[in-house]
Amino acid sequence: MHWKKLLSAKRWGYEYREIKNEDLARSEFQRDYDRLIFSSPFRRLQNKTQVFPLPGSVFVHNRLTHSLEVASVGRSLGRIFYTKYKEAHSQVDEELPYLQEIGNIVSSACLAHDLGNPAFGHSGESAISHYFLSGGGLGYKNQVSEEEWQDLIHFEGNANALRILTHQFNGKEAGGFALTYSTLAAIIKYPCAAINGNGKGKGLHRKKYGYFQPEMQSFVKIAAELGMEKEHDHPLIYKRHPLVYLVEAADDICYNIIDIEDAHRLGILTAHQVEELLIPLANDPNIVSRLAKIGDVDSRVSLLRAKAISTLIQECSTVFFQQEQAILNGDFEASLMDNIQPGLREVMQTIEKISVEKIYNAPSVVQIEVAGYKVMSGLLEEFVPAYLNNSSSYDKKVIALIPNQYKQQEQTAYEKIRSVLDFVSSMTDLYAVELFRKMKGISFPSLD
C-alpha cells in the first residue's frame, strides 16, 4: 500500500464532483470531524454506557466523552507520526500533501469509531447476537443466506458504524455522512465480512468483521479507491488501512487508563491502588514528590492519568513510525499497544488484569449488563416478529413505533430484520429502558 493512494479527500456519495474546497477555515478532513460532531448519532452517544451505569451522581465517562477523548489522543498520534516522517523525508509536503492531515483523519475516525455501538455497551451487542443465536430469532435462520446469518449472530458495532455513515436511510440525502474515503477506511478495524471474520483464519484483521452484507460493495469500493492490500487468494478479505492502527491505539490508551480513573471516582479502586498502577507509566522521575505536594486526591489521579496517556502516545507513535513499512505491506499483525516497550507492556497487562477483576466485574457494571441484556432482547422480541409478519393489528401498532427513517423498501427477511436492528441499535440506554417498560406493560406513558 502507498500513502499517495491511501490518503484521499474523495467524498462518499460525491465521487464525481471535483474536489474544490473553498472553505478557508477547514480542510476536507476537518470537515469530516465537524459533520460528525454536529450529527444526531454522535449526540446520542452521551446517553450510551461506556462501562459504568448512566446516569449517576458521580460523573463517569459515557460513549460521547470517551469518543472525544479518543479523538484528542488520535490527533496527537497522527501529528507525531507526520512530524517524524517529515524529519526523515524533507520533501513530504510536496510529494504527499495529505500526509500533514493524518492527525485530522485519525481524530475524525476516532469520533466515529463507536457510532454503531448499541445501548448498554458490549452487553447490547451480545444481546442482539444471542437473540438470533439461541433466542426467538433462531427461527429465521432458514429465511436468510449463510452470509447474512453470520451478520445476525455476531452483531458488530464497527460494521454498524460503517452502515450509519454510508447507508441512505429513508428520507435522508444520498451518501450518508458523505465523509472522505480515508476517514471511512480508518474506522474499519476488521476489513472482511462476518463469514470470513470472527477468528476464521489468521491475522488481527480477521478477529471480528467490518461490514454487513448490504455494505459489502460499499466497502470494496472504498478499498479499491485507496489501494488497500487484499489477503492472498481471497478477493474479499483485505489488510487494514494503516490509519486503523492509530485509531485502535487511541481507543486502547483511553479506555485502559480512563476506566481506572472512573473506578477511583466510584470508590471501586483506592487512590493508593491507582497510584501503584499509573506511577510506572508517568515517565517522570519527580512524580512521587509532585504528588506529595497535591492535597486533592482527584487532582493527583488526574495528573497520573495525563502522564500515563502522554507516555503511551509517545510509545505507540514510535511503534507506528518504526513499523510503517510492515504496516504498508500488510504484514503487521498486532496492535501498536502490543509492541510497546516490554516493561510498559507488563504494566498495561497488570492494568488489564485489575480492570477485569475489579472494574468489569463490579456489581454496578454487571447489573447494568444483565439489565441491558434483558432490555435489548425484549425489544427484539417485539419488533422483529411484528415487522416480518405485519399481519395483525398488534403488529401494525408495534411497527408504528418505528421511525420512518428506518423503514425501507425491504424485500427480503434479512432486509426487514436489518431495518429493525438499525432502529434498536440506535437507541440510547434511557430510551431503550423507557420503551421496553412501556411495551411490556411495566409502566404506562403519561396521559397528560
Automatic annotation (TrEMBL):
Keyword Hydrolase applies: yes
UniProt keyword terms in alphabetical order: Hydrolase
SUPFAM superfamilies reported in the protein's UniProt record: HD-domain/PDEase-like
Segments forming domain HD/PDEase: 59-265
Domain of life: Bacteria
Transmembrane segment boundaries: none
Listed name of the protein: Deoxyguanosinetriphosphate triphosphohydrolase
